[in-house]
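Hi R.,

Here's the chain you asked about this morning:
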Amino acid sequence: MEEATGDEHYLDFGEPAYAAYIAQNRDFDSEMLRYGYTSLTTQNSIYDYNMRTRERELLKQTEVLGRFSPDDYVTERLYAAADDGTEIPISLVHRKDLTKDGTNPMLIYGYGSYGASMSPFFNSTMLSLLDRGFVYAIAHIRGGQEMGRFWYEEGKLLNKINTFTDFIACTEFLQNEGYSNPDLSFAMGGSAGGLLIGAVVNMRPELYKGVVAAVPFVDVVTTMLDDTVPLTTEEYDEWGNPNDPEYYEYMMSYSPYDNVTDQEYPYLLITSGLHDSQVQYWEPTKWTAMLRGHNTGDGIIMLYTNMEAGHGGASGRFEGLREVALVYAFMLDLAGIYR
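And here is the predicted structure, written out as tokens:
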């Protein structure tokens, strides 16, 4: 081995939005670095990288069935200005032949809680939408931890409203940039991301043709007041303790169930699991009933309860794909795409 020089350099991954991680490197006395890489256009890949010669070798790559070429797609990293001026990152993927004329269907996904970062991983099922002209975007909103600990702190407790307004800002930005328009825009989130979706459709329902709320945590105040639920007291650090009047009033200001009003809502597909131990099935069920009672528009509000599943949805490879197909069929039908 040559003597270490102390030189350092960055790896060029060739894309603006991706996820990379260190794989197993058990030999300390080596010039080789093994790492993993994935992006919205590239399936999970394992490389060996020679830190001296800067050459890399692809060792293994997840197989994608069917006719797939990463060269048919492009990923982007964009930034939307939030209400307070904060730049919110967006990871985006679409086919290279897409035209930004505002006529494309778009799915924007978000989570924004618990400091969980939504990395731009490859998802082979997303190709079904991309090849039908969809734009897929991940809004890296506050409440996650993509930009560091402060990103999480600014999207929790008494700063939770930032999570929702960030998502709205990302949607408006993408529509204004010509990626889509409100009649072809869809939003999706699950669990605490379902809380995001519920709050957003109360605040700005006109931005979306349809939304998907998967096992959504929407009856925030009622659940957080019930300390017999095992998760409740642990959640005080995330949402606050509603027995404190300050937190009670703040949570009431955004809780999706408590803020449903008489207005025109978009089409909704709400899913739940009868055996869900994290978001009990009655939360999305009662929210569905509340929405139906106040919706002044023509948007149909659908509830799908899996009578055999829990929080993670259907188990098994094919049962899980059937639920993905349900969600995709919901959006494709509303977008008028039947091919």
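One quick note: The CA atoms of residues 68 and 127 lie 9 Å apart.

Cheers,
M.
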